[in-house]
């Protein structure tokens, strides 16, 4: 009689092997998830440092003048659909920067380092500016030196000047220009302007300003409900006509970055597809990282 295994032994061995396989797969899956999460956080940290360093450099280079507006910051509700609108920031400033456009939108060389800069966070489809399969991205637009001097320096409303002269392309863009805007709806985010996308998966962007009271020298956070501006060497907060008796001393740049998994969760949530999250804040808490950097505004008044 030949020696062999009984049916009971084979069943027991198969069961043990199945249990062992399940355990190994479970551990492997956990390790892969941890690895993916760590890699996503490393990438978010790297990208956040780049973004924060660039904006810090732009703030350091602000051209403080006694006439016109050199900094405009405003708050607006951003977003619609299945996630809660967030209070997001739009920031426009005139500064000396190392990456000022060497040419204007028509391709003509414009040497110089002073340019208009605009940051804006929006929830759009990157390639055509629509809301279909959209994602949060931080946009950074720059105007060449000549356009900045002609259209932005000395004006009392940087936002309007940017929209009328830079974004709309009045006197700047031509139909044959590579940056010509095809659709007024797409605006700064048209397919021709993809170079303005500065960082993707940025889901929160705010600037908190701190000012010194010129009477008692106390420093406090500025409460900004709609806008803050440095105009004609004075500070305006939520009031276009009357400046406040304070000077800016520093600002906190605040961002939240989502990992790739978080971006997917946000997309599913915005589409109403099997989302377990109630709002955008919960997704940020689960998949995001928040970063803050303080910048000095010693030349502001």
The overall pLDDT average reads: 76
Unreliable stretches, pLDDT < 50, 5 or more residues? 80-85, 170-195
Strand content: 25-35%
Q: Helix- and strand-based class? A: alpha+beta
Helix content: 25-40%
Note the run of SSEs as H and E.
Answer: HEEEEHHEEEEEEHHE
| Helical run tally | 5
Strand order of the largest sheet: 5-4-3-2-1-8-9
Total beta strands: 11
Principal-axis shape equals elongated
Radius of gyration: 26 Å
Q: How are the SSEs ordered, and which strands pair?
A:
Blueprint: H1 7-60, E1 69-78, E2 86-96, E3 114-124, E4 135-142, H2 145-152, H3 158-167, E5 197-200, E6 202-213, E7 219-221, E8 227-231, E9 234-237, E10 246-258, H4 260-270, H5 280-287, E11 288-296
Antiparallel strand pairs: 1-2, 1-8, 2-3, 3-4, 4-5, 6-7, 6-10, 8-9, 10-11
Helix pairs in contact: 4-5
Note down, in words, how this protein is organized:
There is one protein chain. The chain is of the alpha+beta class and 301 residues long. The chain has helices spanning 7-60, 145-152, 158-167, 260-270, 280-287; strands at residues 69-78, 86-96, 114-124, 135-142, 197-200, 202-213, 219-221, 227-231, 234-237, 246-258, 288-296. It has a seven-stranded antiparallel sheet, with helices on both faces. Strands 7-6-10-11 form a four-stranded antiparallel sheet. Strand 6 and strand 7 (219-221) form a beta hairpin. Helix 4 packs antiparallel against helix 5. The radius of gyration is 26 Å and the shape is elongated. The model is unreliable at 80-85 and 170-195 (pLDDT under 50).
């Amino acid at each position: 009689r030949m020696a062999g295994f009984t049916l009971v032994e084979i069943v027991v061995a198969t069961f043990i092997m199945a249990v062992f396989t399940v355990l190994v797969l479970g551990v492997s899956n956990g390790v892969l998830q941890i690895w993916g999460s760590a890699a996503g956080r490393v990438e978010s940290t790297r990208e956040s440092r780049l973004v924060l360093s660039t904006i810090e450099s732009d703030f350091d280079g602000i051209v403080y003048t006694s006439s016109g507006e050199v900094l405009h910051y405003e708050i607006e509700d951003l977003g619609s659909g299945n996630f809660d609108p967030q209070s997001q920031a739009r920031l426009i400033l005139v500064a000396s920067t190392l990456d000022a456009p060497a040419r204007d939108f028509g391709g003509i060389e414009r040497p110089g380092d002073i340019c208009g800069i605009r940051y804006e966070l929006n929830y759009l489809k990157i390639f055509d500016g629509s809301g279909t399969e959209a994602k949060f991205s931080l946009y950074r637009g720059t105007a060449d030196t000549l356009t900045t001097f002609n259209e932005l320096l000395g004006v009392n409303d940087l936002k309007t000047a940017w929209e009328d002269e830079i974004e709309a392309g009045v006197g700047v863009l031509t139909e044959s220009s590579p940056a010509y805007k095809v659709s007024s709806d797409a605006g700064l985010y048209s397919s021709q302007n993809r170079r303005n996308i500065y960082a993707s998966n940025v889901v929160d962007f705010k600037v908190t300003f701190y000012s010194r009271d010129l009477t008692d020298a106390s420093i406090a956070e500025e409460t900004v409900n709609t806008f803050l501006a440095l105009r004609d060497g004075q500070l305006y907060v939520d009031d276009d006509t009357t400046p406040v008796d304070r000077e800016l001393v520093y600002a906190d740049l605040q961002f939240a970055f989502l990992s790739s998994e978080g971006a997917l969760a946000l997309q599913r949530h915005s589409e109403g597809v099997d989302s377990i999250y109630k709002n955008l804040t919960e997704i940020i808490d689960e998949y995001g990282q928040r970063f803050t950097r303080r910048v000095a505004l010693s030349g502001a008044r």
